[in-house]
Design a protein that fits this description.
Number of strands of chain B: 0
Largest sheet of chain B: none
Distance between the termini of chain B: 49 Å
Distance between the termini of chain A: 36 Å
Strand content of chain B: under 5%
Oligomer: heterodimer
Strand order of the largest sheet of chain A: 1-2
Shape of chain A: globular
Helix content of chain A: over 70%
Radius of gyration of chain A: 26 Å
Number of strands of chain A: 2
Largest sheet of chain A: 2 strands, antiparallel
Strand content of chain A: under 5%
Structural class of chain A: mainly alpha
């Protein structure tokens, strides 16, 4: 009995000691997190409740309670509107980016001539993700490219248009499709990494699954919904998270630009309050998305 | 169940086959049209930038010239190189992005490995924290981080020796330190990628190495890492590219070490000023020439990563196949 007990304890300590090495591996992050994230984050929260003035290059804090929050919600003419605009723009875009990148990944997975070239081209946005360059190419060019893409799919060969009219789609629906197409430029440039994630998820699906479904005589449609979609569903959330993270450093994220403008004008208290409201809003939205999707996501047990 | 004559059955099969073939052909055409169309849209701005940067004022305004300039000129590039201080910016960008990316890759590999292969108390919560650091917009804590770098003094060590905190702003260390501690630009994503990858490695590999007397570092460096070349390369590529293109971090922490994106925005501001006060002798206050010079500058700052992509493109797309990212 005691023999056994001692044995068990030694095993536990062995395991614990082995685990300690894990802590050592992770320790750079622990140090970095406390020093370069948590500590600044706490000061940033506190700064949201004070008024910052300057005295010989050092901050002077005057507590003002909730005044900064009152300011951004009730007195600032732009902030609330920008915040609402951001989410009104981001949520539909999120859905479109997901569908688009999943569709493109499905195409790029198939076998055809020039596949390598096609993949290389579709990953170019991952490389040229430079905000400032996109900014220089400017709204001018983005508009031009949007027109170009509309022309390419619409005016020049009116096939799609005619098809849609033939299919007796309502005017509203047609308008929506045109809207999406004129955004293809934007979309293709935003979806590089998402396409990459979905594509590698698709490639990771074991071939035997498809073989089995072919033998059973499943149609392409049901193969997609019964095999492909469940297998890549865990990565939908990864893509959602990435899309949101990407929007933080987006060159035309007006909200972030507005916050930086406040930082440049040295309104540190207000800027901190703005940032934290934004952060919390992002968390709430992510939480809702997580809650809505988690039941439907399928995880294969390894 | 009714009886189908063999000849009829053959006909039905043939029809089905034909139908399938037509469907296949239609899909091939649709796919080709979509891929070519969207591919064109993706390449459009790059081609636009490239050709415009070689154009003279006449060519830009002329409606007859769309893609190919009638007269190829290098003046735009000369302007851009001069106005951006290209050589210095290029050197700064190369150094900063390579070192930062290297530090980021190594630290994320270690951290990701720790999360993937060990069990310790609070591991899953801590990994949640990794994702959390991604989800807080950088603007939220940037003020605190800048001030922290300005008066850098962890645990009062520096004031103990020199009497006052040290100023890390505009020193390369301001970017290297977060990169080495897993807090660099989007380090969380890299940690996640490494964790996914190392989690998929067989336990037997580790056990065998352990039996053979390999220590923790030995298993990581000599058993696990050599197998993980593709994921290392993928992370390194991403890290180089994101750091190369990074504008906000460079502007906030090392704005005096002008990297290419910062230099580019400085050049744009100078050109804007020049158009108001036509005093810069180098560029006439002509908006078209200015735009062309900006295009030249933009292309110059993208060229290195584009070149790297063209060379390493094969590894990059292959690493996708080896499921480096999803694991």
């Amino acid at each position: 009995m005691t023999e056994q007990k001692r044995k068990r304890r030694t095993i536990l300590t062995m395991e614990r000691r082995w685990g300690l090495a894990g802590v050592a591996f992770v320790s750079p992050f622990i140090i970095g997190f406390f020093m370069l994230f948590l500590f600044p984050a706490i000061t940033s929260v506190r700064r949201a409740f004070v008024d910052v003035t300057w005295d010989q290059g050092r901050e002077v804090w005057t507590p003002v309670g909730l005044d900064n929050f009152q300011h951004i919600f009730f007195r600032d003419p732009e902030y609330l509107q920008l915040l609402i605009d951001y989410f009104m723009q981001m949520l539909p875009q999120l859905v479109i980016v997901l569908i688009f990148s999943m569709f493109i990944a499905l195409m790029l997975q198939q076998n055809f001539r020039g596949r390598t070239l096609a993949r290389a081209i579709f990953f170019v946005p991952v490389i040229v993700s430079s905000g400032i360059v996109m900014n220089i190419l400017g709204n001018d060019l983005t508009n031009q490219a949007a027109q170009e893409s509309t022309a390419l799919f619409m005016n020049e060969n009116r096939i799609l248009m005619d098809l849609m009219i033939d299919a007796q789609l309502g005017a509203g629906l047609i308008e929506m499709v045109i809207g999406i197409i004129s955004q293809i430029f934007d979309l293709a440039w935003r979806s590089g990494v998402q396409i990459l994630i979905f594509l590698s998820a698709l490639i990771a699906i074991p071939k035997s699954f498809y073989e089995a479904s072919t033998i059973e005589g499943a149609s392409a449609w049901s193969t997609y919904w019964k095999i492909t979609f469940p297998m890549i569903s865990p990565y939908i959330l990864v893509c959602v998270v990435y899309t949101i993270v990407d929007s933080f450093t987006d060159y035309d994220n007006e909200l972030i630009n507005y916050i930086y403008q406040n930082i440049r004008d040295l309104f540190y208290g207000t800027a901190s309050a703005m940032s934290w409201v934004y952060t919390l809003a992002v968390f709430v939205v992510l939480g809702i998305i997580l809650g809505l999707t988690s039941r439907r996501v399928f995880y294969m047990v390894d | 169940m009714h009886f189908v004559k063999p000849s009829e059955r053959a006909k039905i099969n043939k029809d089905a086959l034909k139908y399938k073939k037509v469907k296949q052909a239609l899909w091939t055409i649709t796919r080709a049209v979509l891929l070519v169309g969207i591919g064109y849209i993706i390449l459009y701005p790059i081609m636009f930038m490239l050709t415009m940067s070689f154009m003279t004022h006449m060519d830009i305004v002329s409606p007859a010239v769309v893609w190919i300039p009638r007269e190829w000129v290098l003046t735009n590039y000369r302007n851009a190189i001069e106005l951006m201080g290209f050589l210095n910016a290029f050197r700064a960008s190369i150094e900063l992005s390579l070192v930062t990316a290297f530090l980021q890759t190594v630290s994320s590999a270690l951290i990701g490995y720790g999360f993937a292969r060990y069990k310790f108390w609070g591991r899953d919560v801590l990994f949640g924290v990794v994702i959390l650091t991604l989800l807080v917009p950088p603007s939220t804590i940037v003020i605190s981080q800048i001030l922290q770098m300005r008066f850098f003094d962890p645990l009062g060590i520096f004031s103990l020796f020199t009497g006052e905190p040290i100023n890390l702003l505009n020193r390369r260390m301001a970017l290297y330190l977060p990169a080495a501690l897993g807090m660099g630009l989007r380090s969380g994503i890299f940690i996640y990628m490494f964790r996914q990858y190392f989690r998929g490695q067989p336990k037997e590999l580790e056990d065998a190495a352990r039996v053979d007397g390999c220590g923790h570092i030995g298993i990581f460096a000599r058993v696990m890492s050599p197998n993980a070349g593709s994921i290392y390369l993928t992370v390194l590529l991403f890290a180089i590219v994101w750091n190369w293109n990074d504008y906000y971090n460079a502007l906030m922490f090392v704005d005096r070490i002008q990297t290419l994106p910062v230099a580019l925005s400085v050049m744009r501001d100078r050109l804007l000023q020049a158009s108001q006060v036509a005093h810069l002798g180098i560029v006439a206050a002509d908006p078209y020439t200015q735009a062309a010079s900006l295009m030249a500058g933009a292309f110059l700052s993208l060229a290195p990563v584009l070149a790297m992509y063209v060379i390493l493109q094969r590894y990059f797309t292959e690493s996708v196949e080896r499921s480096g990212i999803v694991g």
